[in-house]
UniProtKB/TrEMBL annotation:
Designated name of the protein: OmpH family outer membrane protein
Superkingdom classification of source: Bacteria
GO CC entries: cytosol
Coiled coil: 53-124
GO biological process, one term: protein stabilization
Keywords: Coiled coil, Signal
InterPro entries in the cross-refs: Chaperone_Skp, Skp_dom_sf
Keyword match rRNA-binding: no
Source organism per UniProt: Thalassobaculum fulvum
Similarity-based family: Belongs to the Skp family.
This protein's record includes keyword Hydrolase: no
Signal peptide: 1-25
GO molecular function: unfolded protein binding
Pfam families hit by this protein: OmpH (PF03938)
Amino acid sequence: MPAPRAAALLTALLILGVPTGLLHAQTAPPSAPAEVAELPVAVVDVQGIMRAAQAAKAIHEQIETRRSAYQEEVSAEEKRLRTVEQDLAQQRSILAPEAYQQKVRQFQSQVAEVQRQVQMRKRELDETFAKAMNEVRKSLVSVVAEIAEQRGIKLVLFKSQIVIAEKSLDVSDETLKRLNERLPTVKVDLPPLK
């Protein structure tokens, strides 16, 4: 909507709304303050719990250990490919052009295969990590539901979605404590090494 039309509409609404509000204010009887229904609410820091939980830390540790092992394998493979590339460069002047091109294609094929393997392993690790962390998330939700039921809480909000909340509404510490008791670790089904 263009600015002049929006301004005209706003002016019209204000003109119509002011007298109506004045008349309504004159005829409305005084009323008692509105009663606010109490809604038992809690706040939980899911992100903080997912970082601090023992099981999540164990998952991170297992994944990073495997990632390091993969990196060692990749480094060894890169070293081997550099040697092959250097040998290929030395053979360029010795080999016939067709033979050299064939070796170049073989080398490029080896490089592509290594890159494919690296991407596949990264994807496998990411999927394995997500699956393991999902176990922690499920247990976390179960613990929060249990706390809510025990305390008669009707609404649980993510702390990340709240601007201001009374500290007494935060059940994160209790949730973390119970989660660590219920799920101290998660065995990650890691893909095998080479």
